[in-house]
Amino acid sequence: MKINNTEIDLVSIITPLYNSKKYLLDTYNSIRAQSYSNWEWLVTDDRSNDGSFELICELAKKDPRIKVHRNEVNSGAAVSRNRCIENSKGRYLAFLDSDDLWLPCKLKVQIDFMRQNNTELCYMDYGFIDEDGNKKDKVRTTPDSVDYIQLLRENIIGCLTVIYDTKRLGKVFMPLIRKRQDYGLWLQILKVIEKADRCPGVHSLYRQRKNSVSSNKFEMVKYNFCLFREHQGMGTIRASYWVSINILSKLFKRNKVRA
């Protein structure tokens, strides 16, 4: 059952779009199915050439809650997400990439948790699907809360699970880096608040695609070093130290993926 839109705060859903036509309709349907129905979906297309932009424009004609923007040139996910954030009108900002999915109670469960616990930055555990949308028997599990130093050890926060409260934090933007900009945003917020909190439950599904950046471990190490060095303002030695801690955290599975 849908809840009364006049009694709840608007949620702005932030989505960068690039060549995801194959998955886009499923992502939209997972948003449309939310029991928390007072949302707007802001999508910035990064010059897709597979028909993604045309499809999202068609969807927007049928659903006025979809707000479509397009970059003048291919600029990366950070620029796309920031354009969405800049144009958002909601109290709460939620993040969902154009190939991932939410389960129907995701927004309601998480917003209720944030209100009850006075939470400014919130994340959840999440499940996995393959490229064809088949659910995998594993879940990314995370601690009950995380602070700045803990997050430096490893980015345990899944972007598709995050909501932050702009009434408490203001609009906080992604660092303008090509990769790991979500990690940079969480670190930026955790410099000014004590901790982020985990909302119990698994209500998001991350799509694992072959040859993705996140599947290339060497590339991830390089991007983490650049994030620490350039965005976090660390010297070479300190940035190298935290990259080493990142690697050790993954080797010893501090935060587990469980079946």
What does this structure look like?
With 259 residues, the protein is α/β, with parallel strands linked by helices. It has one domain: Spore Coat Polysaccharide Biosynthesis Protein SpsA, Chain A, CATH 3.90.550. 37% of the residues lie in helices and 23% in strands. It contains nine helices and eleven strands. It has helices spanning 21-32, 52-62, 77-87, 106-117, 148-153, 166-169, 181-190, 217-231, 236-251, and strands at 11-17, 39-45, 66-70, 92-95, 101-102, 121-129, 135-140, 145-146, 163-165, 196-207, 257-258. Strands 1, 2, 3, 4, 5, 6, 7, 8, 9, 10 and 11 form an eleven-stranded mixed sheet that branches. Helix 1 runs parallel beside helix 2 (52-62) and helix 8 (217-231) packs antiparallel against helix 9 (236-251). The longest helix is centred in the C-terminal third of the chain and has 16 residues, at 236-251. The two termini are 31 Å apart.
Element order: H for helix, E for strand:
EHEHEHEEHEEEHEHHEHHE
Largest sheet: 11 strands, mixed
Q: What's the gyration radius in Å?
A: 18 Å
Q: How many structural domains are formed by the residues? A: 1
Beta percentage is 15-25%
CATH topology: Spore Coat Polysaccharide Biosynthesis Protein SpsA, Chain A
CATH homologous superfamily designation: Spore Coat Polysaccharide Biosynthesis Protein SpsA, Chain A
In the CATH hierarchy, the architecture is: Alpha-Beta Complex
Question: Into which percent range does the helicity of residues fall?
Answer: 25-40%
Distance between the termini: 31 Å
* Low-pLDDT ranges: 1-7
CATH class: Alpha Beta
Number of helices: 9
Mean pLDDT: 91
Structural class: alpha/beta
